Sequence to fold (388 residues):
Amino acid sequence: MNTKWITSLFVCLLFACTPKKQSVKDSPTKKQTLDMNSNTLKKKRFDTILQGKPVKLFWLENGDIKMAMTNYGGRIVGLYVPDKKGDLIDVNIGYGSIKTYLEADETYFGATIGRVGNRIAKGKFTLNGTEFSVPTNNNGNALHGGYKGFQSVVWEAQQPNKYTLILQYTSPDMEEGFPGNLKTKVTYSLTSENAVRIQYKASTDKPTLVNLTNHAYFNLNGEGSGTILNHKMQLFAEAFTPVDAGLIPTGELRPVSGTPFDFTQPRTIGERVEADNEQLHFGGGYDHNYVLGAKQEKSMNHAAKVVGDISKITMNVYTKEPGVQFYGGNFMGSKNTLKSGAKDDARTAFCLETQHFPDAPNQPNFPSIQLNPGETYTTSSEYHFSVE
Ligand code: GAL
Fold:
């Protein structure tokens, strides 16, 4: 036997006996799947200085879920939750870099919204007899706190432990036309029950308006997986606040019963979205505030239950707020590229923005959003994840 042949035999035996290394593709564990997903979120694309302040990418984890956030706009950029197979799915729509957040046409993805979420008719309101005018950045009305809303400011961030991020921002007197220095603190945390908990706090030195929310866009089958039209949704609300063509509430609380707005029983989002209904025409689909209170759980209003038809990921939303804006992603316009590489096509995500009702300062029948010196604004909302 020559030595060449013996060496070849030895090498062959060595390969045959060495266990084949499993590739990530073969059988991804939860951890591996997350690493694959989180590859799209690179620290170096988020860590920067903006408005003279440090901006960073923060990772939170607890239970089986993991969340990526940036203090630019106090926003969720990725949210990884297990599906029915245990694979982690990113259910939050967002971009892969701060640069994209700054340049993109849609600025609200995942952001903390303030000081006044949703619309104020013609940007006008009166506080204790004084009239105020704020910028009209949406078809003649004010939307989400103006051009420089809380989605576009740099929040001061502290991460006291691996599951909590504390964000603070003081909005100066008359910023975007709103009176009073408003001190705001929003605490994002992940609970061991696989929930995202958001606790809001604010105080002011002059009478002002406050209506804070978070504007996460969800696709429970995963970002870039197509439309949300087959998601099954339940909204625990007997009434909604109908709007005019400019999406300003008429002041009426209209029963949902017998209308395409009735989600008291589970229905797919897409079933009736194209129905011949004036309210759906005004919104280009669902873009309406629902009146909560029909169901309570965990000492909060149970606002919604949504199930992703493919992933079976289930999201339950609870809030201390009296309303929730169900926005079905109608204005998403395929103009922006998401972190997954997919475009933000119409109705590929939905939002459930817990809130006081839109245009509250001009609607005497709606709960007030006025905050006075000496008072503390506190509220909280929770998004719980499980599989069906
Ligand atoms: C929602 C609002 C929609 C749209 C969206 C952001 O809160 O109701 O009309 O403006 O934000 O694109």
Observations:
- Residues 3-17 form the longest helix (15 residues).
- Residues 108, 118, 143, 247, 287, 325, 327, 331, 353 surround beta-D-galactopyranose (CB under 6 Å).
- Confidence is low (pLDDT under 50) at residues 6-33.
